[in-house]
C-alpha cells in the first residue's frame, strides 16, 4: 500500500506543506477514478473538466474537483451506489476517507458528493517526514468534491483512456473537442461566487496551446441549455470568436489572475493576460 503511494508521489515536486496537501488531493482523485472504474461507473458516465485535462492531457495547474456527465439523461440516477467502490479503493491503500452525498433543497441537474478525510492523518500516511503535520489543526479535513450532470446537453463525443496507478483502470472521457466545448461554455457563462473564475481562462489558453479544436455542436447545446443563445442562433466559428471577444472586453483580468494564482507554479504565464492577448490568440480557434 505504502509502496503504491510512494510511487504516485514521485512525480510531485514538494517544497512546502501546501504542496503536500495538493499532492495528496491529486493522488486521491486518481484513487476515486480507479474505484469508480471498478464499479462500472464509466458505462453510464464520462469524465470531463479541469481535472480530466490535468490527468490525461498534462494541464499544468492544480484542479480541485472531479466533474462527470452521464452519457444519456437519467433523472433517477443514483450516485450513492458507487460510494462503496470509492471507499473500498481508498481503504485498500490504507487511507481513511468517507463519501457523503450533498443533499440539495432545490431541483438540480447536478448530483454532488464529497470525499472527506483528516488532513493530519493523511500527511503522516503519505510522507515519511511528517514533522510539519504538527502545525496542522487536528480537525482540518481534505475534501474532494465530485459532481455528475444528469441532464447532459447533446453532441458530446468520447474516448477511452487508461490509468496505471493506483491500479490499472479505464475511464470514459470527453474527447478533446468536447472538453474544449465545456471550457468555452464556462468562459462565456460562468461566474464564481460573483467573481471571475480565472482558471477557466487559464485552461482556455492551454487548449489553444495544444491545438485543440472545439466541438461546436456540443457547445451550442450547452449554450442553449444555459439560455445564453437561442436554438436558432447560428454558432459558426466566426460568431463564436465574436462572443468570446465581447467576453474578453468585459473581463476583469486582475481579478481573473487573482483567482488562478494559487493553482499554478509558473506565475509568469499570466503576465501577458489582457484583452489584446486573448483576442489575438482567439484568431487561432478552430471548430469541428
The helix/strand class is alpha+beta
Helical residues, percent? 40-55%
Strand order of the main beta sheet, please? 1-2-5-4-3
Q: From the alpha carbons, calculate the radius of gyration and give it in angstroms.
A: 19 Å
CATH class category label of the largest domain: Alpha Beta
CATH H-level superfamily title of the largest domain: JHP933, nucleotidyltransferase-like core domain
Number of helices: 11
CATH topology of the largest domain: Nuclear Transport Factor 2, Chain: A
Helices and strands, in order, run as HHEHEHEEHEEEHHHHHH
> What's the N-to-C terminus distance?
44 Å
- How many domains make up the 3D coordinates? 2
Number of strands: 7
Mean pLDDT equals 94
Largest sheet: 5 strands, mixed
Low-confidence stretches: none
What is the second-level CATH architecture of the largest domain? Roll
Shape, principal axes of CA atoms: globular
Estimate what percentage of residues fall within beta strands. 15-25%
Amino acid at each position: 500500500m505504502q509502496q503504491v503511494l510512494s510511487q504516485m508521489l514521485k512525480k510531485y515536486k514538494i517544497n512546502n506543506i501546501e504542496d503536500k496537501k495538493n499532492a495528496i488531493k491529486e493522488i486521491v482523485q486518481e484513487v476515486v477514478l480507479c474505484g469508480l472504474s471498478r464499479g462500472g461507473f464509466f458505462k453510464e458516465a464520462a469524465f470531463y473538466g479541469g481535472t480530466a485535462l490535468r490527468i490525461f492531457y498534462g494541464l499544468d495547474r492544480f484542479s480541485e474537483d472531479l466533474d462527470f456527465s452521464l452519457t444519456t439523461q437519467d433523472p433517477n440516477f443514483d450516485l450513492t451506489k458507487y460510494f462503496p467502490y470509492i471507499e473500498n479503493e481508498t481503504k485498500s491503500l490504507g487511507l481513511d476517507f468517507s463519501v457523503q452525498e450533498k443533499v440539495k433543497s432545490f431541483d438540480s441537474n447536478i448530483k454532488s458528493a464529497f470525499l472527506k478525510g483528516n488532513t493530519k492523518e493523511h500527511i503522516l500516511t503519505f510522507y515519511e517526514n511528517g514533522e510539519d503535520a504538527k502545525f496542522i489543526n487536528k480537525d482540518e479535513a481534505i475534501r474532494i468534491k465530485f459532481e455528475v450532470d444528469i441532464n447532459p446537453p447533446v453532441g458530446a463525443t468520447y474516448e477511452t483512456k487508461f490509468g496505471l496507478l493506483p491500479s490499472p483502470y479505464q475511464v470514459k472521457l470527453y474527447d478533446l473537442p468536447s472538453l474544449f466545448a465545456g471550457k468555452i461554455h464556462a468562459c462565456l457563462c460562468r461566474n464564481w461566487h460573483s467573481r471571475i473564475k480565472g482558471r477557466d481562462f487559464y485552461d482556455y489558453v492551454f487548449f489553444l496551446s495544444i491545438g485543440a479544436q472545439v466541438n461546436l455542436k456540443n457547445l451550442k447545446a450547452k449554450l442553449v441549455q444555459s439560455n445564453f443563445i437561442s436554438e436558432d442562433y447560428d454558432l459558426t466559428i466566426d460568431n463564436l470568436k465574436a462572443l468570446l471577444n465581447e467576453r474578453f472586453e468585459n473581463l476583469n483580468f486582475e481579478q481573473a489572475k487573482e483567482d488562478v494564482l494559487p493553482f499554478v507554479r509558473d506565475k509568469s504565464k499570466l503576465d501577458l493576460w489582457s484583452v489584446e492577448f486573448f483576442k489575438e490568440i482567439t484568431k487561432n480557434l478552430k471548430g469541428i
